[in-house]
Structures are given as C-alpha cells and as structure tokens.
What we know:
Elements: E1 3-10, H1 18-24, H2 31-42, E2 49-57, E3 62-67, H3 72-80, E4 95-97, H4 99-109, H5 118-132, E5 134-136, H6 141-149
Parallel strand pairs: 4-5
Antiparallel strand pairs: 1-2, 2-3
Helix pairs in contact: 3-4, 4-5, 5-6
Amino acid sequence: MPDEVSVMVEGGKAVAGAVLGAALGPLGINVGQVVAQINEQTKGFAGMKVPVVIRVDAATRQFTLVVGRPPVAALLLKEIGKEKGSGKPKTETVGDVSLEAVAQIARSKGTDLQGRTEDHRINQVLGTCVSLGITVDGADPRLVLRDRTGRTSP
C-alpha cells in the first residue's frame, strides 16, 4: 500500500521546504522532481491554494500526484480579485459576484461539494459567499438563497 502525503500548495509555487522535504525525504524520493511536477500541474491555479496528494510506492520509490481543485472560498476570492474575505461578513462586503459565476464555481467543483444536485452545490457556494462577505448580483447572498429555496433564513 502506498504512503500518502497531503499538502496545500500555492498553484505553481510549491517549494521543497520544511513541509514537503520533511514529509517526503524519509520516503526516499527526489523532492525536487515532486516539486517540479506539482508546479507544472498546478500552474493554472496561480495565486490559489490547491490540495495535492502525493502517493509514494516505497518499494519502487515511484510517486504519483493527485491534484485537487482549489476550495470554493479561493475560487470566489479569485473571482472578485481579493486575497481574503471580510473580517465582518455580516456588515462589511469585500466584493460582488454574479449568480452565473456562483453556478460556474459550483459546476467546476463537481462532486467535490457534497450536494447531490447542481442546485445543492450552488446553495453551498452561496453559503460560502455569506461567510466571506461577498454579495451576489449586488444582493445579500442569504436573500438569494432564500429566493432560490423558499426558506426564510439559511
């Protein structure tokens, strides 16, 4: 059974520092090669944190990478051009996204989100908008969620 190392790296900017070096060094694989492959496979996610699983076969010292998708929060923040959400999301907003952008993020996450339908996944992305202080088409995402679901509060 292969050993697995899970890390979050900035897209295209992984380094062979303390985290990767300490985790991979004892497994006997070339950390530089791992870092180069991670950077190649994650360069499209520049500026975002990306989950990566490194599977190492101890017998052959071969490795494979499984690159995940950035978290919903990172995708939303990229959409609005910010590095972080509001410290006071109920009273301060940091940006606005369209409902179409919310739907696109929900589609891009696919089965990563636990909702069974696209509507469930959209609602989950709307919930992330609430926690980050991001409005949707200029409206409070809780109102958008209420309009979509018919519930009085999320």
